Records
---
Amino acid sequence: MIRLAKLCLGVTLLFALTGCWGSKTIQSMDYATAIGLDYKDGLFHSYVQVLSFSQVAKTETLEIGKSIPIWVGKGKGKTVAEAFSSLYRTSQLRIFWGHVRAIVFTDNFIKNKHAQLQAYDALNRYREIRYNILVYVTKEAMPKVLTQRAILNLSPLETILDSPEESYKQQSELPPQYRFRVISEVNEPLRATLLPTLAITEESWIEDEKKKPMFLNNGAYIVQNKELKGWFSLDDLIGYKWLEERTKRFLINVPPNEPPHTAIILTNPRYRIKPFVANNAVRFNIDVYMKGNIEEMTHDTTIDKLEAQAAAVVRGQILHTYKTGVRKQTDIYGLLALLHRNEPDMYHKLNREGKIALKEDTLNKITVKIKIIHTGKYKARTR
C-alpha cells in the first residue's frame, strides 16, 4: 500500500509539472505600460511604451536619479487590432499587455467617430487590457508623450501619465479619467464625459540651468450623447471642480474682483443639485458647502468677510463654467442627466413637450457656504 501511495503521488506531481513547461520567465517578455492611438490617411497608428521588468517592479536595487531607458514601438493597420498586432513582427520578445496603465489618443483620433467606435470595441474586447487604466487625449506628438521623463529621473511610471492621483490630491483641478468611468458615462444618456488633455511644458522646471519638459493637464475634450462637443480649457472648466465628488483641495485668492490679499485652501466640497419646474420649464438650484484654511493673508480682515468673499469666488467660477457650456451647448455639470436619472417622469414629460433646453436661466440659484476652520499659526478676527 505504501509503494502504491508513493507511485500515485509521483504521477500526480508529474502531471502538475507539465503545466509549467510552456511558461515564460518574467525577464523574457516586453511589458507594455502605456499605449497610444492615432488615425490618419485611413490607417490606425499604434504606439506602445515598453519598460523592462526592473522598471515595472519596485526593487531595492533601483538607483534613484539614474536615467531609465524608455522604448516606444510603432505599428499601423486598417484596424486597431491590426495596428497593434503589427508590432509583434519586430518586438523580438512577447508583449504582455496586462501592465498597461494609460492610453493616450491624439486629437485627430478623438475627432473621428469611426475611429472611436473601432477603438472602443477592440480595447474592450481584448482580455489582457484592464478597465482601470487612465485615459488621455493629446495634441503633442505621440513619441514625445510616451518618452517623457519623470522628475528626478524617477521611473517613467511616476508621471501624471501613469500616476496622477498624488498630484491631484494637492491640486484638484481636473480629476483623472479612468477607462471604466468612460465606459459607464458614454452609455448614460446626456452624461458629459471629460477626457483630460496632456500637454508638455518647459516653463516650470530647470535641471542644472537646463529647461526640463514636464507633463501638464491643460484642459479636456468633452463627449456627450456619444458626440464630441469640443475642447475646453482649464479656464473654461474653472468651476467644474466644485461639483466633483473627487475634489480634495484647491487654492483660491480673495477678494474676487480686486487685487487679492488672502489665499485660502478649500477642501472636500459637498454639493446638492435640486431640479424644479417654474413657468412650465425646468430650473436647477445648486447648494455647495466646504471648509477652508487660510494659507496667506496680507490684509487685516474678519473671518466672516473672508468666508463671504471666498463664497463669491466659488459662485462666480461655477457660473462661468456653466455659461461656457451653454454657449457651446454642452451640459458640463450634467444637470439634465441628473434630472433624467432622479426625476424621470418630470424629464420625459418636459421632453415630450419640447421644453428641455439648456439656457442661461436654467441654472436658477447657486448657494455657496464656506467655513474657515484653520488660520495657520496666526489668529484672525472673527468679526
---
Amino acid sequence: MIVTSEQAQALTEHLIALELQLQRAETRKNKAQLNLLLANGFEEIAASGVRFDKAHVLQRLPEEQAPSVEAFDFEVRLLAKDLAQVLYKAKLRKAGELQTKLSLRSSLWQLNSLGWQMLFHQGTAVLPASGPA
C-alpha cells in the first residue's frame, strides 16, 4: 500500500472533518446524515462502557441535546487501503452539566461504495489526576 504524503494529508483532513461533523448538533439531529456517516455494522462503546449499535444511535442521537465537544490532538492511521483509525482527545460537557469530562477517542473508518463510513467508535474516560504517582 503506497500512499504519497499529499494523499495521506488529504485523507487525514477528510477523516478529521467527518469526525467533527458527527459532533455537530445539526448532524446528530439528522437521521439521514447519520445513516450515511455510520456503516451498517457500526458499533460504539461509550466511555460509560455501554455498547450501542447503529439502530440505537439513529434512534437516540436525534432525540438528545448534543453535548459541547472540544476535540484535539488528532492522529490518523491508515490500517489498510480501505480502513483507517482516527485517534484524538475530547473535552465533553453534556447539556445541563457544569463539569467537562476528558476522554480518549478512537474510531475506525471504512471506505466502501458510499465513501468513508464510521464502523466503530470508542470513548475511554480519563480520570482526573489524583496527585503524584
